[in-house]
Every structure is written in C-alpha cells, then in structure tokens.
Amino acid sequence: MRKFVFSALISMLLIACSNNQQVHYDSENKSNLYSKIIRNFATDDGLLKTDLKGREHEYLAESQGLLLEYFLQQNMRENFQLAMKATENQLLLKNNTVSWQKINDEKSPTNALIDDLRIIEVLMAASEKWEDSHAKKLANQLIEGNMKHTLNDGYLVNYSSNDENNRTDEINLSYVNKNQYDYFNFPKEQLEKQMKILEETPFSKNGFYPLKFMINDKTYTFEKKVHMVDQLLTAINRAAVNPDDHGFYEQLKNRFNRDGKIFGMYHLKTGKPSVRYESPAVYSYAIQLARIHHDVDFENKLMQRLNALKNHHEDSPFYGTFIEESSKETHVFDNLMPLLIEEGN
C-alpha cells in the first residue's frame, strides 16, 4: 500500500513538473516582427502579455489563438505543440471551454465564444495537416464543452455558463463564422437558423452593422459608437453566406478615400470618427476583406497605411513592430494581426 501511494505521489509530481516547464518558442532566423513579439510579449508559461505597461500580467485566449494560427500558417510544428500545451495547461477550464482571460494566476471562469471557435478551427486544421491526434482530441473537447455550456435555444451565444437556465441571450455577429460552426456538425436546420443571423443582418444608413443579435426576441442591437474590428469581422463572416453583399465594403472604401485612413471607431448616426486613433488590427482585417473581394488596389493602399504605423526607428529595440517608441504603448493584438496578414498573403 505504501509503495502504491509513493508511486502515485511521484506520478503527480512528474505531471505537475511537466505542466510547469518553461516554454521557449524558437525565434531564430524568423521574421523581425515575429521575433520581437516573442522577445517582448512571450512568458515562460507560453502565454503572451497583453501589453507592455499595465497589463503585463494579463493573458488573453485571443492572443493564444492567433499565435497558434501563425505557427500553423508558417508550418512551425514544434512551436505549435508548445503553444497548444500552454493553452491546455494555462487556460482550459473544467467545463472544457477556454478561459478568455488570465490575470496573474487566476483564470476567468468563463470563455468568449470567438476565442474558442478560433482555437477549434486551428486545432482541426493542425490535426489534418500534421495528423496530430492530440490537436483533434483537444478540439473535440472544446466542441463538446461549448455544446454543453454555450448553447441557448439552439444558438451558440457569447459566453458559456454551467447553468443552462441562466445563459446569455446575446450573440455578437462578429462571432458567427460559418467555417468554424461547421466543425460542430449541427443538424442542417440548426445551422441554417444560426446563419440566418448573418443573412438577415440590417444595415444602418451610414453603412454599419449591428453589434449583436438577441435570440429571445429575435432583434438586432446597434451601438452608438461602432468598433471597426467588430464591423470588419462581421463583414468577413457575411461574405461566407452572402458573397454578393458589397454595401459595407463600398462604404469602407469611401471612408478611406475621404480621410486617407480608417479610424478605430465611428459614430453610428453621423458616420464620422468618434476617435482619432488608427489600429493595426483594423487595417489587418480590412486587408483580409479586400482579399476576399479580390481588390488588389485597395489592399495595397491599406498595406501602405499599415506599414506607416510601424516603428521606423532603426536603432530602436522595437523597430519594425507596432510598439510606440517612448511610451511602449501597444497591444499584442495589434502586432499579431499584422504578422498574420503580412506573412500569410
């Protein structure tokens, strides 16, 4: 009996040690932007800091999903394995969904559907590309977890709840991605019901989409100030179910031609910018949308504007990144998205 208990303790210790191993992503002979993302944001746990001032101890599932996507895109299998294990060890919740945020050592008890969907998609793609059985197993765990805890009245909703009688009735349109939903193998009618959210999305007079759909009363909700990341993701999602819809895209081009840039947020009623900042992530999604429309001219204009936002100080440790020189103002999202766009083509 003592021998059995001792062996069990050793096994538990070994598991604990393996879960606490330091993670070092290979960044030798890689692109400048990637190498500096790893150097400045990566932690010994394999997660990425959210920024470099104030949120250094905050880690997002969003960042982890984008990092996994990049490793898959660049065929960096060893790095992918490390990032997958870090995601599993550091962010996976007991209900088999992914905590949307970890601060220090404390995980948020809920997920964000958009993060889980992105991770499921990239894990499934990795399982096919490399015949990776563990990636497929983990993806299926996440699918099962979301089927149990993120469904409400047959709709995937914004975040999970273990109490099926107390789930949100909101779904952001930017989350409804048909390619990602296909991995759930929904019955045809259930999938069509969810895609209808995108197909029947109204359009404001100034060319903006609503933020969310309320499943209880089947209504759409607009925000007074619209975030362009949400808008662009919705447009990308709609392109998969309604490829002939060019309304938002033409309005986007008109704004860019008028102002020479795309701002991060706009007023819903006036269509005028509500902020003065530009976002590298916004340009990255706009480039993705231009590629969907096979619009090389607009893509090139957007890429030029994106490059203008880079740090161009050659003697700076942040050269070639989207980290502001003196203040270190940045967000890892605003570095990961350009990385995927610039090297993915």
UniProtKB/TrEMBL annotation:
Name listed for the protein in its UniProt record: Glycosyl hydrolase lipoprotein
Q: Which SUPFAM superfamilies match?
A: Six-hairpin glycosidases
Residues annotated as signal peptide: none
InterPro entries per record: 6-hairpin_glycosidase_sf, 6hp_glycosidase-like_sf
Could you tell me the Gene Ontology terms of the biological process aspect for this record?
carbohydrate metabolic process
Cite the PROSITE patterns for this sequence: PROKAR_LIPOPROTEIN
Q: Which organism is it from?
A: Kurthia zopfii
